[in-house]
Write a structure and sequence with these properties.
The protein has 1 helix and 6 strands, in the order ββββββα. With 108 residues, it is mostly beta strands. The N and C termini lie far apart (48 Å). 26% of the residues are buried.
Protein backbone atom coordinates (compact mmCIF):
# COMPACT_ATOMS: atom_id res chain seq x y z
CA UNK A 1 0.00 0.00 0.00
CA UNK A 2 1.33 3.44 -0.95
CA UNK A 3 0.95 6.12 1.69
CA UNK A 4 -0.03 9.63 0.60
CA UNK A 5 2.54 12.18 1.80
CA UNK A 6 0.76 15.28 0.48
CA UNK A 7 -0.95 17.61 2.91
CA UNK A 8 -3.38 18.96 0.28
CA UNK A 9 -5.55 17.16 -2.27
CA UNK A 10 -4.32 17.24 -5.87
CA UNK A 11 -6.50 18.47 -8.70
CA UNK A 12 -5.72 16.96 -12.11
CA UNK A 13 -5.18 19.72 -14.67
CA UNK A 14 -3.86 20.37 -18.14
CA UNK A 15 -2.81 24.01 -17.84
CA UNK A 16 -0.36 25.66 -20.23
CA UNK A 17 2.63 26.93 -18.28
CA UNK A 18 6.16 28.15 -18.51
CA UNK A 19 8.99 27.49 -16.08
CA UNK A 20 11.14 30.63 -15.69
CA UNK A 21 14.52 30.84 -13.99
CA UNK A 22 17.94 32.46 -14.12
CA UNK A 23 18.83 36.14 -14.00
CA UNK A 24 15.66 38.21 -14.52
CA UNK A 25 13.95 34.90 -15.34
CA UNK A 26 15.42 35.07 -18.85
CA UNK A 27 15.72 31.27 -19.12
CA UNK A 28 12.53 29.31 -19.64
CA UNK A 29 10.89 26.09 -20.77
CA UNK A 30 7.27 25.54 -21.75
CA UNK A 31 5.42 23.01 -19.62
CA UNK A 32 2.05 21.52 -18.82
CA UNK A 33 0.82 21.76 -15.25
CA UNK A 34 -0.58 18.24 -14.70
CA UNK A 35 -1.66 18.51 -11.03
CA UNK A 36 -2.23 21.43 -8.71
CA UNK A 37 -2.76 21.57 -4.97
CA UNK A 38 -2.65 24.40 -2.46
CA UNK A 39 1.00 23.62 -1.81
CA UNK A 40 2.46 22.34 -5.06
CA UNK A 41 2.29 21.19 -8.64
CA UNK A 42 3.28 18.33 -10.91
CA UNK A 43 4.82 19.62 -14.13
CA UNK A 44 5.46 18.01 -17.47
CA UNK A 45 8.68 19.57 -18.82
CA UNK A 46 10.81 18.03 -21.57
CA UNK A 47 13.68 16.17 -19.90
CA UNK A 48 16.20 18.06 -22.06
CA UNK A 49 15.46 21.22 -20.02
CA UNK A 50 17.35 21.31 -16.73
CA UNK A 51 15.41 22.63 -13.75
CA UNK A 52 17.14 24.54 -10.97
CA UNK A 53 16.18 24.11 -7.32
CA UNK A 54 14.14 27.35 -7.36
CA UNK A 55 12.10 28.78 -10.22
CA UNK A 56 8.80 30.41 -11.18
CA UNK A 57 5.89 28.54 -12.75
CA UNK A 58 3.87 30.89 -14.92
CA UNK A 59 0.25 29.93 -15.59
CA UNK A 60 0.00 31.63 -18.97
CA UNK A 61 -3.78 31.90 -19.42
CA UNK A 62 -4.63 32.59 -15.77
CA UNK A 63 -1.92 35.21 -15.22
CA UNK A 64 -0.54 33.59 -12.08
CA UNK A 65 3.10 33.19 -11.10
CA UNK A 66 3.96 30.56 -8.50
CA UNK A 67 7.28 30.51 -6.70
CA UNK A 68 8.47 26.91 -6.79
CA UNK A 69 11.08 24.61 -5.28
CA UNK A 70 11.97 21.40 -7.08
CA UNK A 71 11.17 18.31 -4.99
CA UNK A 72 11.69 15.52 -7.53
CA UNK A 73 12.33 14.91 -11.22
CA UNK A 74 11.75 11.73 -13.26
CA UNK A 75 12.09 12.09 -17.02
CA UNK A 76 9.55 14.61 -18.31
CA UNK A 77 7.79 14.93 -14.94
CA UNK A 78 8.75 17.11 -11.99
CA UNK A 79 7.18 17.81 -8.63
CA UNK A 80 7.48 21.19 -6.98
CA UNK A 81 6.33 22.80 -3.78
CA UNK A 82 4.70 26.16 -4.51
CA UNK A 83 4.42 28.16 -1.29
CA UNK A 84 3.37 31.46 -2.92
CA UNK A 85 1.14 32.54 -5.80
CA UNK A 86 1.07 36.01 -7.35
CA UNK A 87 -1.67 37.48 -9.54
CA UNK A 88 0.11 39.14 -12.48
CA UNK A 89 -2.91 41.28 -13.38
CA UNK A 90 -2.01 43.82 -10.71
CA UNK A 91 1.04 45.14 -8.93
CA UNK A 92 3.70 42.50 -8.32
CA UNK A 93 6.84 42.46 -6.18
CA UNK A 94 9.81 44.02 -8.01
CA UNK A 95 11.60 40.72 -8.56
CA UNK A 96 8.56 39.41 -10.49
CA UNK A 97 8.39 42.38 -12.88
CA UNK A 98 10.22 40.43 -15.65
CA UNK A 99 7.72 37.55 -15.28
CA UNK A 100 4.79 39.97 -15.54
CA UNK A 101 6.36 41.52 -18.65
CA UNK A 102 6.74 38.04 -20.18
CA UNK A 103 3.13 37.18 -19.33
CA UNK A 104 1.88 40.39 -20.96
CA UNK A 105 3.90 39.65 -24.12
CA UNK A 106 2.52 36.08 -24.31
CA UNK A 107 -1.06 37.32 -24.09
CA UNK A 108 -1.00 39.93 -26.86
Amino acid sequence: MISERRLNAREPTSIRGRVCYGRDYALWADCLIRDLSDGGAKLQVAAVHPLPQSFIVLQVIEGVAMTAKLKWRRGDLAGASCPARHDLRGIVPGDLAPVRKLWLALNR
